[in-house]
Amino acid sequence: MRISAGELLEQLLDSGSFVSWDRPPLEVAGSTRYGEELRRAASTSGTDESVLTGAGLLRGRQVAVIACEFGFLAGSIGVAAAERIVTAVERATELGLPLIASPTSGGTRMQEGTVAFVQMVKIAAAVAVHKAAGHPYLVYLRDPTMGGVFASWGSLGHITFAQPGALIGFLGPRVYKALYDKPFPEGVQTAENLYRNGVIDGVVSIPVFRRIAHRALSVLGGEIVTSSPAAQGIRPGAPEAAAESVSAAYAPAGTEPADLPAWESVLASRRPGRPGIRDLLRQATQRVPLSGTGQGEADRTVVHALARFRGQPCVVFGHDRSGQQGENTMGPAALREARRSMALAQELHVPLVLIIDTVGAALSKEAEERGLAPEIARCLADLTTLNTPTISVLLGQGTGGGALALLPADRVLAATHAWLAPLPPEGASAIVYRDTDHAPDLAAAQRIRATDLLADGIVDRIVPEHPDAADEPVDFARRMVQAIADELTELRTYPESELLASRRHRYRRLGLRAM
User: Fold this and answer.
1) H/E element holding 160?
2) Cα 318-320-322 angle, rounded to 5 deg
3) DSSP-derived secondary structure for 63-112
4) How many CB atoms lie within 10 A of CB 5?
5) What pLDDT shows up at residue 361?
6) Whole-prediction pTM
7) Is the pLDDT assigned to residue 39 strictly greater than 70?
8) How far is CA 21 from the centre of its chain?
9) Could you count the other beta carbons within 10 Å of the beta carbon of residue 135?
10) What is the distance between the alpha carbons of residues 370 and 333, in angstroms, rounded to a whole number?
11) Which residues pair with 456 in a beta bridge?
12) What is the pLDDT of residues 432-469, one digit of tens each?
């Protein structure tokens, strides 16, 4: 069912709050026939162009809105429509407003030719400037969204959702049939298929998108809530000094981590009932699940979302222990999703929280051919240079490059039974002793347990389990979320440039502590 611009605004915004920003459209030179088409389109659609712009309230929060009207020449974008869009984007940027765009369009206005086609460049540029200024850009794709509109401002959202059943794609099926004399494969250019393949974040109705947009903007804007009195102490002189003072402030007397054998922690980390990333997200005050790379890939062994932990906004990304079965472990697409979360956090100027809980990266022909190792390298490079606060959490198993790829951060927390190793202890034993019987000995010798990681400067703080997180999943999840929120509160007191310099220094000195 096609949804008009007016219907979208009515369902998306608070009643009666929309205020139009539109002026009469630019006059564009064209044939007499085109002039007649414009007049008929205005008469039948009730709008003066294929796009409406303005501002309104979404659950009391002011937002800027751009909405296409398909009834006006199939929502096509020409010079006048593009100028209206760019003017609205620039005004939203100047006012510091979040921007919600809802395209529905056949693409470029053919009657205006190439000059209309290249308008997509200036629209994309305006959106890029808006995002670079740190302002949210949310997209809701309606039926249909095709061609240059989808290939420009329709695909640049920080988050992107679509109308159920919407036709969405680059080359329209009618054009494909005319060019190749055969129908386009069915079921490809649908909102649902694009969601399954990681191109968009979800398929929802407008009322549901309204709730999602509200939650997303609640994460990304508004008051920053101080999470605990412990995080309000005197600010140390430098971020690296803060790690020591904050950890000391949170550690009650007599709660030194127990000196447990490393193998005991390995076994505890593998217990089926151990809480994972989804348990942490259930403790979030706001959360918006995201999906895929936005570039046609999705990996169900990872989870990412916008969230608030005890009032602190962040982008969350991590391994999903419930999604890892047998050889179904994280592949290159999971790491590309991780890099999407990194870029999202930096663009929106919110902290990034990474959750490590993996049996290791995929070992397969497909993983090698699709660039697993290069993606691990890019994650390491991105995290060590990311210009936003970062926290990494060793929640359970931390095996190999798949764990290492999410490790570099301003603060690294670990659960009591979390561990980090280049291989699972059985694998290390197979290399050294040609059997798996020596796995417990290798686990101890390689210093993989949380207490060893703390002593070696890899971890900043251990969050206790009483005595095992699997026996107290809810209480442990609350404890870990509070620890994350406290660290976020502390980190947000530092300039991003100062944190970045401290992070580089931290990893430059890694391994030299005992020298």
Assistant:
1) strand 159-162
2) 170
3) EEEEEE-TTTGGG-B-HHHHHHHHHHHHHHHHHT--EEEE--B-SB-GGG
4) 26
5) 81
6) 0.87
7) yes
8) 31
9) 23
10) 8
11) none
12) 999 999 999 999 999 999 999 999 999 999 999 999 99
